[in-house]
Amino acid sequence: MRKLFEPALLLLLRLRPTDWQRTLAWAAVVGVTGALSTLGFRACLVGMERLLYGTDGLVRAAESLPWWLRLAAPALGGLLAGAVLAWEGRQAHAPHGDYMEAVVLGRGELGTRSSLLRALSSLCTVVSGGAIGREGPMVQLAALTGSVLAVWRGMPVARRRLLVACAAAAGLTTAYGTPIAGALFVAEIVLQSLSTDTLAPLLISSVTAHLTMAGLTGSHSLYRMPEVAELGGPAYFLCGLLGLLAGLGAPLYLWLLDRAKTVLGRWQIARPWKLAGGGLLVGLLSLQAPQVWGNGFSVVDSVLQGGWPWQALLLVLLFKVAAVAATTGSGAVGGIFTPTLFVGAVSGALFTVLAGMVFPAALPMQVGAAIGMGAFLAASTHAPLTSLLMIFEMTENYRVVAPLMLACVLAVSLSRLLRPDSVYASSQRARAAADPRLASAGDLLRTDSCTVGPGASIADVEQRLLESRWRHVYVLDAERHFQGVIPLHELAKRLKAPHDPAAPWPADLLQPRFPSLSEDMPLWEVLQVFESHPGERLPVLDAAGRLLGHVTKTDLVLMLREQLAIS
């Protein structure tokens, strides 16, 4: 009977998922949790807006308020947001950073208290009209779910970071409804790697997040852009020119934001009052242009429909840039992604109106706004592929793809000449500071090692190797001291000969000389050991020779590649 079922049993055991396949499964799980956390934060924002203003949309709310409330609301919101941040700073003892830093720095662990309090601070800023994106706390909360799950499962650092990155991609996908661009944003800007090892889990996470969002709220494009006719040669020429102008304007925009942080950072006042001052500046600007309230989604959606005069576009553009500078410069927590889209869309529409005086009807305002949005985003982030797919997925308009490709490439080329650092340069510099030579084998430690004792039977050793699909099984004594390994190929030779499965495994199968690692061994030394060892895993021993776990070559390559990508 055993001989009858043994082939089927061996086949089932060989179908056990590998580490890579389990990573993809966990990527799908965090895609769901990241989407749920993002949708939850969005529901809180909508509920607060309805409760406070009785309407949806911050611009509409600002237009309906009397002047004194339009002035006071952002200041009061900034005061509350600053108070939350001040309290969070007194409570937290570990570095937190924004969500991009959280994806790639440290041990892949996010502080739950810090993340929740920063999200609450951002909620206060956004609901009160602060000119900042809501995607920042959304992605931070999504990344938090990935961190919690990775820590709970005891994953090594490399896999933990990857899972947090997957959750961040899920959050971005849910925030904008862009599953492809959500994955590429994290791969291209954060991880700076488009390899299968990183991109496949990100795509899985983004897809499951998109499905979760579609099942709960429906699936639709973020912006309602009308259909446009096929573009001709003059339109392509103008799109290329718009890309160059975006390459000039984005560095200036980022310089203004940096200057605002420097100037407002010199205020020697408590943090709550500093954020209140930034909110007061936004309130003053909104007296003339209520469109500066919020992240600007409704304004961009309106500009994509066309029909704006150039005077209104210029006024809104100048006031919005000033409002974003005041909000971010005061230290408010939030995203810069959506405000950047706003500046690009309005700039593109303004360019279209002015260009129409020379080339009448050559480039519709809707197309100019979409091209400007993508080109300005590409010039600010230095990520043309992400920007291209982001605009296409948000508008679902294929006719803008070809001219957008031209504009994005030209914008990035010129922007990099004028300003080598992107809008996320601070996160990338912090990431670069995480020198791989400071990491050690203990950072990659896995504890689910395949082990047997000296008196185990041949059947037990065979079963352990079949279940784990390892090429070696570690032999430990009663106190977990490492004795050596039993190779799979040597055991297979014995199994072909007549033997008693219940008998102890033969002592001559043991290979006591097997390379090992110490927990504090730096990664460059771990790499040297792997260079002389063809296997996938190496045991990690403490000073007394007891087994602590093992390190895989895949995890080592993942961590080193993350660091080399930015060097």
Characterise this structure.
This protein has 567 residues and is mainly α. It is built from 23 helices and six strands. Strand 1, helix 20 and strand 2 form a beta-alpha-beta unit.
* Average pLDDT for all residues: 84
Shape: elongated
Rounded radius of gyration (Å): 28 Å
Task: Report the portion of residues in β strands.
Answer: under 5%
Supply the helix-strand structural class: mainly alpha
Strand line-up across the major sheet: 1-2-3
Biggest pleated sheet:
3 strands, mixed
Total strand segments:
6
Report the helical percentage. Answer: 55-70%
**Stretches with pLDDT under 50, minimum 5 residues:** 92-97, 427-438
Q: First CA to last CA: what distance?
A: 60 Å
Give the number of helices.
23
Give helix and strand order, one letter per element, not per position: HHHHHHHHHHHHHHHHHHHEHEEHEHEEH
Short description:
The protein contains 23 helices and 6 strands. It has helices spanning 2-14, 19-53, 58-64, 67-91, 99-104, 112-127, 135-152, 157-176, 179-191, 196-217, 233-265, 271-288, 297-303, 310-329, 337-355, 365-381, 384-395, 401-418, 425-432, 458-468, 488-496, 523-531, 553-564, and strands at residues 451-452, 472-476, 482-487, 517-518, 537-541, 547-552. It is found in: Membrane.
